[in-house]
Request: fold
Amino acid sequence: MGVMMLARMIPEATIDEVQNAVNIVDYVGQFVQLKKQGQNMFGLCPFHDENTPSFSVNEDKQIFHCFSCGRGGSVFKFVMDLDGVSFPEAVAKVAAFGHVDVNINTTDNRPRESATVTRQKAILAQVQKLFNHLLVNTAQGEAALTYLHGRKMTDKTIEHFGIGFAPGDDQMLRKYLTKEGVSYEEQRASGLFVDRDGGQLASRFTNRVMFPLRNERGETIGFSGRVIGHQDGVAKYLNSPETELFNKRDTLFNLDQAKAAVNPDKRFYLFEGFMDVITAYEAGVPTGIASMGTSLTREQITIINRVAKEIVVTYDGDLPGQKAADRALGMLQNTQHLQYSVCLLPDGMDPDEFIQNRGADAFKQQLQHVLTPIAFRIMFLANGVDMTNDHDKIAYVDAALTEIARETEAVPRSLYLDQLAERSGVPRDALAQQLASTQAGPAPAASGQDDPFAAWDDNDIPPAAPSGWVAEPPAAPADYGPSASVATTRMSRFEKAERALLYYMLTDAETADLVGADAVEFPHGLYQGIADQWQDYRATNNDDLSNFTTRLTDEEGETVAAILATSWPPVNTDTTEGLIKVLGGNDLRTQLSHVKEQLQQAQRLGDQAGQTRLANQYFELMRQLKA
Reply:
């Protein structure tokens, strides 16, 4: 459930009361040492590791923003991100800090589940206790218990994960549940049984060690059963089918326990299977999670992005494990704020093999040796490459340099070049030279006759905004300010104009009125959506920006926080009208690009009349854009 929906569950008057009672500087100051500089205060961001503070708080606007990781919003968003809690819980925490007496329900912040779902959860919880009892306390479970002990699994671990045993009698569970008053329909819907001829139910799980699958709240929603030892023709693992409770696409094994573990860094380890999670737990790593026997899914990534600051992909070190890690990294690259890396165990070992051979301490130490995504790709791309074959080596180097080109910072880029030189045998200087040429792009045409418009750079069309108009992150002391990589992030002139106009709309009522009267359209849907919501908000509320952000999505709220944290020139009529003119020129720019393509095509075809006509159109559009 998004912030907007949760915000609607609390009366606006309550949100306003809490927000007005607590200064964001005071609340954030509990966790971040802030230094005043101009209108902002700076400190080390609590959401990621950094040496140069890029986390800012604006006391006037009651907004925070990090120039490095991009997080930002109101004091409630700060609490949600820092503590991993819901919006109602964040409001309650801020209220308690400000000694505001409010009545907020922080537990029932999701739609009430149906009676059927509640009943199924109760049934599975009862079955989990039965399986655990059969494993630990009966003769039927002795072989399974011996097997687990043989794998160095302690009784404490068995209890922690609620592990059990399903006996060979495929009618035992049906008889037990029937005696307990569970109906045929309820048994059939539980996922614990398969249908036989005539509609008779038989246990899905027999002679298997049973691992309960729990949701994020620790409620049993299904099971995974493992055969004892090896049995020909029998699947090693068998999961519950998808039911009203269980969907493997949005289930992460051990997420509930991993969240509950003491983990100030919010670093989680993603393993291939739940036996790896259990083995890691026994080695003293309680924050392991695993997908359900399948590749990582979008739904699981969404969950990880919500609860974690960092995820370390810790798959087996063999080639299949590396391929799985590469797929996982490809999906993780679209997440926001989440740091991710790879830990590959040496010699192709899985966690269990590593711990058995080298011990728990060595395992925990190995988990600290992580590869960045680019470093991993440099290594992974070398698999199967014959470095004695020049063709293969060149193809590998080209692919690896493409990865390195993604890095914008000089130091890590230099380290990656060292790694590639060592792996490929190509001199580092040659790699650096090719990387520079790759980043520079193709060389320009040799003469103006080959491209009659080579002298015109569409990106350099002067803006209509006043001369010298530049937006910058706020000034800060040498040790306190946004990092260069963020401060120099490039965006198009039109996007800069959109952000500037939004800033003036948000901070100046006359600009907001002017934009509304002129029906200005923003090229990017994100900015248009924020502008529309601000106009609607102003119609029925005061101009409280911090309160406004509680009604936005995470992306919208963080965008607003970033815009408000940027230092812009003072607003005036010329500035506003100039920005509106720039945005109005976006259509002209599109036309310009289209005409340029047509002109180049006419040149290739030798169409002199077409060239003359299109050239006149091109220069007329250029004139209008410069006007």
User: Anything to note?
Assistant: The two ends are 48 Å apart (CA to CA). Residues 588-626 form one domain. The mean pLDDT is 82.
